[in-house]
Protein backbone atom coordinates (compact mmCIF):
# COMPACT_ATOMS: atom_id res chain seq x y z
CA UNK A 1 0.00 0.00 0.00
CA UNK A 2 1.29 3.48 -0.91
CA UNK A 3 1.61 6.49 1.37
CA UNK A 4 -1.68 7.74 2.78
CA UNK A 5 -3.03 11.10 1.60
CA UNK A 6 -6.00 12.42 3.61
CA UNK A 7 -8.10 15.03 1.79
CA UNK A 8 -10.81 17.39 3.00
CA UNK A 9 -13.21 18.53 0.28
CA UNK A 10 -12.21 15.54 -1.83
CA UNK A 11 -15.54 15.30 -3.64
CA UNK A 12 -15.14 18.74 -5.23
CA UNK A 13 -13.89 19.16 -8.79
CA UNK A 14 -10.20 19.57 -7.83
CA UNK A 15 -10.44 16.76 -5.28
CA UNK A 16 -11.86 14.30 -7.80
CA UNK A 17 -9.20 14.93 -10.43
CA UNK A 18 -6.42 15.04 -7.84
CA UNK A 19 -7.61 11.70 -6.47
CA UNK A 20 -7.41 10.12 -9.94
CA UNK A 21 -3.81 11.28 -10.34
CA UNK A 22 -2.77 10.22 -6.83
CA UNK A 23 -4.24 6.74 -7.26
CA UNK A 24 -2.42 6.35 -10.58
CA UNK A 25 0.83 7.14 -8.78
CA UNK A 26 0.15 4.46 -6.17
CA UNK A 27 -0.91 6.59 -3.21
CA UNK A 28 -3.56 5.48 -0.74
CA UNK A 29 -6.29 8.16 -0.75
CA UNK A 30 -8.75 8.83 2.08
CA UNK A 31 -11.42 11.52 2.47
CA UNK A 32 -12.92 13.33 5.40
CA UNK A 33 -16.65 13.72 4.76
CA UNK A 34 -19.68 14.91 6.72
CA UNK A 35 -21.57 11.87 5.44
CA UNK A 36 -20.39 8.29 5.14
CA UNK A 37 -20.40 7.28 1.48
CA UNK A 38 -18.93 4.65 -0.80
CA UNK A 39 -16.33 5.95 -3.25
CA UNK A 40 -14.33 3.50 -5.41
CA UNK A 41 -10.69 3.10 -4.29
CA UNK A 42 -11.09 5.75 -1.57
CA UNK A 43 -11.61 5.18 2.16
CA UNK A 44 -14.08 7.71 3.56
CA UNK A 45 -13.95 8.78 7.20
CA UNK A 46 -16.80 10.72 8.76
CA UNK A 47 -16.23 13.97 10.64
CA UNK A 48 -18.34 16.71 12.18
CA UNK A 49 -16.40 19.81 13.13
CA UNK A 50 -19.28 21.44 15.03
CA UNK A 51 -19.72 18.34 17.19
CA UNK A 52 -15.98 17.76 17.50
CA UNK A 53 -16.26 14.28 15.97
CA UNK A 54 -13.62 12.50 13.91
CA UNK A 55 -14.06 8.84 13.00
CA UNK A 56 -11.50 6.55 14.55
CA UNK A 57 -8.66 5.61 12.22
CA UNK A 58 -8.85 8.73 10.05
CA UNK A 59 -5.38 9.89 11.07
CA UNK A 60 -3.78 6.45 11.31
CA UNK A 61 -0.66 5.98 9.13
CA UNK A 62 -1.05 9.53 7.83
CA UNK A 63 1.68 10.77 5.50
CA UNK A 64 0.14 13.82 3.84
CA UNK A 65 -2.81 16.10 4.55
CA UNK A 66 -4.55 18.16 1.84
CA UNK A 67 -7.17 20.79 2.66
CA UNK A 68 -9.63 21.65 -0.13
CA UNK A 69 -12.82 22.13 1.92
CA UNK A 70 -14.64 25.45 1.71
CA UNK A 71 -18.03 26.84 0.66
CA UNK A 72 -18.02 28.32 -2.85
CA UNK A 73 -17.74 32.11 -2.93
CA UNK A 74 -20.09 32.31 -5.93
CA UNK A 75 -22.87 30.09 -4.59
CA UNK A 76 -25.17 32.89 -3.42
CA UNK A 77 -25.40 36.53 -2.40
CA UNK A 78 -22.97 37.55 0.31
CA UNK A 79 -25.36 37.99 3.20
CA UNK A 80 -23.79 38.27 6.65
CA UNK A 81 -24.73 34.63 7.23
CA UNK A 82 -23.17 33.49 3.95
CA UNK A 83 -19.97 35.42 4.68
CA UNK A 84 -19.60 33.61 8.00
CA UNK A 85 -20.11 30.25 6.25
CA UNK A 86 -17.50 31.09 3.59
CA UNK A 87 -14.91 31.85 6.28
CA UNK A 88 -15.75 29.17 8.84
CA UNK A 89 -15.92 26.36 6.26
CA UNK A 90 -12.26 27.07 5.47
CA UNK A 91 -10.87 27.96 8.89
CA UNK A 92 -12.80 25.95 11.50
CA UNK A 93 -11.99 22.75 9.64
CA UNK A 94 -8.25 23.43 9.78
CA UNK A 95 -8.41 24.48 13.44
CA UNK A 96 -10.17 21.21 14.26
CA UNK A 97 -7.57 19.14 12.40
CA UNK A 98 -4.70 21.05 14.02
CA UNK A 99 -6.11 20.23 17.45
CA UNK A 100 -6.61 16.57 16.53
CA UNK A 101 -3.03 16.26 15.26
CA UNK A 102 -1.70 17.87 18.43
CA UNK A 103 -3.80 15.71 20.76
CA UNK A 104 -2.77 12.50 18.99
CA UNK A 105 0.85 13.64 18.54
CA UNK A 106 0.69 12.97 14.79
CA UNK A 107 2.93 14.88 12.39
CA UNK A 108 2.27 14.43 8.65
CA UNK A 109 5.22 14.95 6.34
CA UNK A 110 3.42 17.86 4.69
CA UNK A 111 0.21 19.86 4.81
CA UNK A 112 -0.98 21.39 1.53
CA UNK A 113 -3.81 23.90 1.81
CA UNK A 114 -5.85 25.57 -0.89
CA UNK A 115 -5.83 29.35 -0.73
CA UNK A 116 -7.11 32.10 -3.00
CA UNK A 117 -5.74 34.52 -5.57
CA UNK A 118 -8.05 36.98 -3.79
CA UNK A 119 -5.32 37.37 -1.14
CA UNK A 120 -4.35 40.51 -3.08
CA UNK A 121 -7.92 41.78 -3.24
CA UNK A 122 -10.90 41.37 -5.54
CA UNK A 123 -9.68 44.31 -7.63
CA UNK A 124 -6.00 45.22 -7.71
CA UNK A 125 -6.16 46.72 -11.21
CA UNK A 126 -3.01 46.30 -13.30
CA UNK A 127 -0.69 45.78 -10.31
CA UNK A 128 1.57 42.77 -10.82
CA UNK A 129 1.14 40.76 -7.62
CA UNK A 130 3.92 38.39 -6.61
CA UNK A 131 3.92 36.34 -3.43
CA UNK A 132 5.75 39.24 -1.76
CA UNK A 133 2.91 41.69 -2.49
CA UNK A 134 0.82 42.81 0.51
CA UNK A 135 -2.74 41.59 1.09
CA UNK A 136 -5.72 43.85 0.46
CA UNK A 137 -8.47 44.72 2.94
CA UNK A 138 -11.71 43.70 1.21
CA UNK A 139 -13.90 40.71 2.08
CA UNK A 140 -12.26 38.13 -0.19
CA UNK A 141 -8.80 39.15 0.98
CA UNK A 142 -10.00 38.79 4.58
CA UNK A 143 -11.25 35.28 3.78
CA UNK A 144 -7.87 34.28 2.39
CA UNK A 145 -5.92 35.84 5.24
CA UNK A 146 -7.97 33.93 7.81
CA UNK A 147 -7.61 30.76 5.69
CA UNK A 148 -3.82 31.03 5.66
CA UNK A 149 -3.67 32.05 9.31
CA UNK A 150 -5.53 28.83 10.18
CA UNK A 151 -3.06 26.82 8.06
CA UNK A 152 -0.28 28.21 10.23
CA UNK A 153 -1.75 26.35 13.21
CA UNK A 154 -0.48 23.16 11.56
CA UNK A 155 2.72 24.81 10.34
CA UNK A 156 3.47 25.79 13.94
CA UNK A 157 3.51 22.09 14.84
CA UNK A 158 6.66 21.75 12.71
CA UNK A 159 4.78 20.43 9.67
CA UNK A 160 5.97 21.62 6.25
CA UNK A 161 3.05 23.71 5.02
CA UNK A 162 2.27 24.87 1.48
CA UNK A 163 -0.48 27.35 0.54
CA UNK A 164 -1.60 27.43 -3.09
CA UNK A 165 -3.22 30.77 -3.97
CA UNK A 166 -5.43 29.52 -6.76
CA UNK A 167 -7.14 31.52 -9.50
CA UNK A 168 -9.93 30.50 -11.88
CA UNK A 169 -9.57 26.78 -12.60
CA UNK A 170 -10.11 25.88 -16.26
CA UNK A 171 -11.94 22.56 -16.01
CA UNK A 172 -14.54 20.44 -17.76
CA UNK A 173 -16.87 20.40 -14.78
CA UNK A 174 -17.15 22.17 -11.45
CA UNK A 175 -15.70 25.51 -10.48
CA UNK A 176 -16.23 28.75 -12.39
CA UNK A 177 -15.47 27.64 -15.95
CA UNK A 178 -18.81 25.99 -16.86
CA UNK A 179 -20.66 29.09 -15.60
CA UNK A 180 -18.36 31.44 -17.53
CA UNK A 181 -18.80 29.41 -20.74
CA UNK A 182 -22.58 28.92 -20.45
CA UNK A 183 -23.67 32.16 -22.24
CA UNK A 184 -21.25 31.43 -25.10
CA UNK A 185 -22.74 27.97 -25.58
CA UNK A 186 -26.02 29.68 -26.44
CA UNK A 187 -24.37 32.23 -28.71
CA UNK A 188 -24.29 35.09 -26.20
CA UNK A 189 -20.66 35.13 -25.14
CA UNK A 190 -19.64 38.67 -24.15
CA UNK A 191 -16.93 40.23 -21.99
CA UNK A 192 -18.07 41.31 -18.52
CA UNK A 193 -17.84 44.96 -17.54
CA UNK A 194 -14.94 46.63 -19.32
CA UNK A 195 -13.47 43.26 -20.27
CA UNK A 196 -10.05 44.69 -19.46
CA UNK A 197 -9.87 43.16 -15.98
CA UNK A 198 -7.16 40.54 -15.50
CA UNK A 199 -8.17 36.94 -14.77
CA UNK A 200 -5.69 34.71 -12.92
CA UNK A 201 -6.26 31.20 -14.26
CA UNK A 202 -4.85 27.68 -14.27
CA UNK A 203 -5.79 24.41 -15.99
CA UNK A 204 -7.24 21.69 -13.76
CA UNK A 205 -4.44 19.22 -14.52
CA UNK A 206 -1.79 21.82 -13.69
CA UNK A 207 -3.25 22.76 -10.30
CA UNK A 208 -3.61 19.08 -9.39
CA UNK A 209 -0.02 18.40 -10.42
CA UNK A 210 1.09 21.31 -8.26
CA UNK A 211 -0.48 19.60 -5.24
CA UNK A 212 1.41 16.41 -6.08
CA UNK A 213 4.71 18.24 -6.63
CA UNK A 214 4.20 20.04 -3.32
CA UNK A 215 3.69 16.70 -1.56
CA UNK A 216 6.69 15.02 -3.10
CA UNK A 217 9.31 17.79 -2.94
CA UNK A 218 10.52 19.15 0.39
CA UNK A 219 11.66 22.47 -1.12
CA UNK A 220 8.01 23.48 -1.59
CA UNK A 221 7.21 25.58 1.47
CA UNK A 222 5.02 28.61 2.16
CA UNK A 223 2.68 30.48 -0.21
CA UNK A 224 2.68 30.25 -4.01
CA UNK A 225 0.64 31.99 -6.69
CA UNK A 226 -0.86 28.84 -8.21
CA UNK A 227 -1.66 30.34 -11.60
CA UNK A 228 -0.59 29.89 -15.20
CA UNK A 229 2.44 31.89 -16.40
CA UNK A 230 0.36 33.96 -18.84
CA UNK A 231 -2.55 35.91 -17.30
CA UNK A 232 -5.35 37.04 -19.63
CA UNK A 233 -8.07 39.68 -19.63
CA UNK A 234 -11.73 38.77 -19.32
CA UNK A 235 -12.10 39.88 -22.94
CA UNK A 236 -9.41 37.45 -24.13
CA UNK A 237 -10.84 34.61 -22.05
CA UNK A 238 -14.28 35.22 -23.55
CA UNK A 239 -12.79 35.30 -27.04
CA UNK A 240 -11.02 31.96 -26.59
CA UNK A 241 -14.18 30.36 -25.16
CA UNK A 242 -16.18 31.49 -28.20
CA UNK A 243 -13.49 30.20 -30.56
CA UNK A 244 -13.33 26.82 -28.80
CA UNK A 245 -17.13 26.47 -28.97
CA UNK A 246 -17.27 27.84 -32.53
CA UNK A 247 -19.74 30.51 -31.41
CA UNK A 248 -19.88 34.24 -32.20
CA UNK A 249 -18.78 36.79 -29.63
CA UNK A 250 -21.76 38.90 -28.63
CA UNK A 251 -21.54 42.68 -28.46
CA UNK A 252 -21.79 44.92 -26.49
CA UNK A 253 -20.14 43.90 -23.24
CA UNK A 254 -22.33 42.99 -20.26
CA UNK A 255 -22.44 46.29 -18.30
CA UNK A 256 -21.00 46.35 -14.81
CA UNK A 257 -24.12 47.93 -13.29
CA UNK A 258 -26.26 45.00 -14.49
CA UNK A 259 -23.94 42.50 -12.82
CA UNK A 260 -23.96 44.52 -9.60
CA UNK A 261 -27.76 44.61 -9.62
CA UNK A 262 -27.91 40.85 -10.19
CA UNK A 263 -25.20 39.72 -7.78
CA UNK A 264 -24.62 42.57 -5.34
CA UNK A 265 -21.22 42.60 -3.63
CA UNK A 266 -20.45 39.19 -5.15
CA UNK A 267 -20.15 40.85 -8.59
CA UNK A 268 -16.60 41.78 -7.57
CA UNK A 269 -15.64 38.16 -8.32
CA UNK A 270 -16.04 38.75 -12.07
CA UNK A 271 -15.61 42.53 -12.32
CA UNK A 272 -12.41 42.80 -10.30
CA UNK A 273 -8.99 42.75 -11.93
CA UNK A 274 -6.28 40.54 -10.47
CA UNK A 275 -2.89 40.16 -12.17
CA UNK A 276 -0.93 37.41 -10.44
CA UNK A 277 2.68 36.56 -11.23
CA UNK A 278 3.78 32.97 -10.55
CA UNK A 279 7.19 34.14 -9.37
CA UNK A 280 7.90 31.47 -6.75
CA UNK A 281 6.65 28.64 -9.00
CA UNK A 282 9.00 29.87 -11.72
CA UNK A 283 12.05 30.62 -9.57
CA UNK A 284 11.86 28.21 -6.63
CA UNK A 285 10.42 25.03 -8.15
CA UNK A 286 10.94 22.77 -11.14
CA UNK A 287 7.25 22.71 -12.05
CA UNK A 288 6.42 22.25 -15.75
CA UNK A 289 3.03 23.42 -17.01
CA UNK A 290 1.03 21.17 -19.31
CA UNK A 291 -1.14 24.14 -20.30
CA UNK A 292 0.77 27.45 -20.07
CA UNK A 293 -1.46 29.28 -22.58
CA UNK A 294 -5.17 30.03 -22.37
CA UNK A 295 -5.95 28.96 -25.96
CA UNK A 296 -4.81 25.36 -25.43
CA UNK A 297 -6.32 25.21 -21.93
CA UNK A 298 -9.79 26.33 -23.02
CA UNK A 299 -9.69 24.16 -26.13
CA UNK A 300 -8.82 21.12 -24.01
CA UNK A 301 -11.80 21.49 -21.67
CA UNK A 302 -14.47 22.73 -24.09
CA UNK A 303 -13.91 20.74 -27.27
Automatic annotation (TrEMBL):
Residues 5-217 form the NAD-dependent epimerase/dehydratase domain. Gene3D superfamilies: NAD(P)-binding Rossmann-like Domain (3.40.50.720). Belongs to the NAD(P)-dependent epimerase/dehydratase family. SDR39U1 subfamily. Residues 254-301 form the DUF1731 domain. PANTHER family: EPIMERASE FAMILY PROTEIN SDR39U1, SUGAR NUCLEOTIDE EPIMERASE RELATED. Signal peptide: none annotated. This is TIGR01777 family protein. Pfam families: DUF1731, Epimerase. It comes from Dyadobacter arcticus.
Amino acid sequence: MGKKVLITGGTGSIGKRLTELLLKKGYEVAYLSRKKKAIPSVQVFEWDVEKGYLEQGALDNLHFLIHLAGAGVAEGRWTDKQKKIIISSRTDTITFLANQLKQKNILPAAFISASGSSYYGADSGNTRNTEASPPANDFLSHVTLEWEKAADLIKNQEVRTVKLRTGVVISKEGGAMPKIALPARFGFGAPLGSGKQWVPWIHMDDICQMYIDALENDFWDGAYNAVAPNPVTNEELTKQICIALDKPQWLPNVPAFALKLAFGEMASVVLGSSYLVNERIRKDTEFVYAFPNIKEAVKDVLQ
